Each structure stands twice: as C-alpha cells, then as structure tokens.
C-alpha cells in the first residue's frame, strides 16, 4: 500500500519550510514537494537586512539554514512539480506529479509567486540573452557593463543596489515618480553615483541582434534609447496557483484563507506569498507557515 503522509506541503520557501518544521515537531509525518531550489524567491536575494536575528544575511545562506533545519527533523522531500490535487472520498488527498502519486491526510500550499513580464513583442527574443529576473544570479556576468532595472518596489531597489557591486552603471526605470520601498533603501539608491533614475518612463522596445544591446524608453512623450547589455525586470509577481482548482481564489489567483490559513476546502491550507494578503515579506511568510503548521496538527487531531 502506498504511504499516506499526515501532511503534504507543496513549496519550500520560508512559509513552506516553517510549516514543515512546526508540523514535524508535532510528530506529524511530513512530505515537502518542491521542483525548484529551496528558499523560493528568497534564494535570489543578495542581502536580507530586515529579518530578525540577522543584521544582514545572504538569501542563499538563509534558505539553506532553513532547509538544513527542516531536514534534520527527518522531513521527506521530493524534487518534482505538482500537476494537480484531487480530494478523495475518504477525506484525504492525492497529489499528481510527473507520473507519480502522493497521498496525504492534509495539504499545505506554499507555492509562492513568479515574476511578471512586460509582454512586449520584442521581449521574448532576449529572455536569458540579456533579460533576467535575478540580479544576484546574473549580475556578475555584466561586470563593468551598463545595465537597466525596471520596477519601483523593494525588489527593484534591491536589485539596483546589488548590481552596483559589479556593473559600471544602472538605469533604474520606473513608470511613476515615486518608489514603493523603504525610505532607507531609496536614500541609498539616490546617493549612489552608479545609479541613474529614469522616472515617469515606460519601456517600449528591447533592441539588439543576438543579445540585448539597448532599450527604448518613452519619457515626457519622447523616445530615448539607453545602451545597456542587460535588463533586470522587477515589476511584480504572479501566484503559482494554476494547478489547483478546488479552492477559492481572488481574481488575481491568490488563495483565500481563514485565520488558521485553511482554504474553503477542509484539509487544504495555504500560507506565504501565495495567499491573499497585503504584506509579503520573509517575516510574514514565516508567520504564516508557523500558524499553518500548528493548524494542521490541530485539524488532524
């Protein structure tokens, strides 16, 4: 007979790993399924300076700290992608993934979000040929070059600052005149001589032959060409919820949950950036995961 886990957690970002740690400490049999690297979006962050207990820590290091702590508790782990979730008559669940099936008495969805793209016709040609979504991963490839960052939130600000450690110049392009980030970070950007702000501007076209060579930006009803060898898009994220149809979601695809992070389907919980909430930070993801892990234990008992 196939093994039935007490809880199957889909996703191993800070929310999913925290849920696993809490559930395992209540002696639940836990399986974590993750098709990407442990840590989620956190793993692509060069420096985390707002997580309690660390004045500053690299995103990869914090991700591995959480992962190692989880694995020390004998949590089962599968590196596959989930295709769908089915609720069975016996009130348990079947997870289908790459010709495999996993069975659980409960499920926690912690799949996080993925990057948005601009959707320009000229954009797809330069995916991973100059256009990137990970400054910490690809920034060193453009040492001494001129690059651009698109966006106005914390991710865009962090990417721009991180890139100044490698590149010659960063054009920070934002469609508004103000940033949606912490003031201390904005002040760092404005005082950094390597960063040039391109505000009230929209990207109209990506230029180049085989690799990215420039960007056309519309500013004050005029078109301006910026010569850059790379562009890092930080314009928001989309929840990874397409694979599940059982539960209630917002129009944007975020999962609706109650105060215990249970969905409208009994036995299915969700936590972290994938749920419908206002603030998405590592600290809030850990909070969500702790509550979900405790709630699952209560539900099963």
Any chance you could write out the topology, listing elements then pairs?
Elements: E1 4-5, E2 7-10, H1 14-25, E3 30-33, H2 59-72, E4 76-78, E5 84-87, E6 93-97, E7 100-104, E8 107-109, E9 113-115, E10 131-132, H3 135-138, E11 146-150, H4 154-163, E12 169-173, H5 183-191, E13 195-198, E14 201-208, E15 212-219, E16 222-226, E17 230-233, E18 237-239, E19 268-270, H6 282-300
Parallel strand pairs: 1-7, 2-3, 2-8, 3-4, 8-19, 10-17, 11-12, 11-17, 12-13
Antiparallel strand pairs: 5-6, 6-7, 9-18, 14-15, 15-16
Question: Could you explain how this protein is built, in words?
Answer:
This protein has helices at 14-25, 59-72, 135-138, 154-163, 183-191, 282-300, and strands spanning 4-5, 7-10, 30-33, 76-78, 84-87, 93-97, 100-104, 107-109, 113-115, 131-132, 146-150, 169-173, 195-198, 201-208, 212-219, 222-226, 230-233, 237-239, 268-270. Strand 6 (93-97) and strand 7 form a beta hairpin. A five-stranded parallel β-sheet has the order 4-3-2-8-19, covered by helices on one side. It has 301 residues and is of the alpha/beta class. It is elongated, with a radius of gyration of 21 Å.
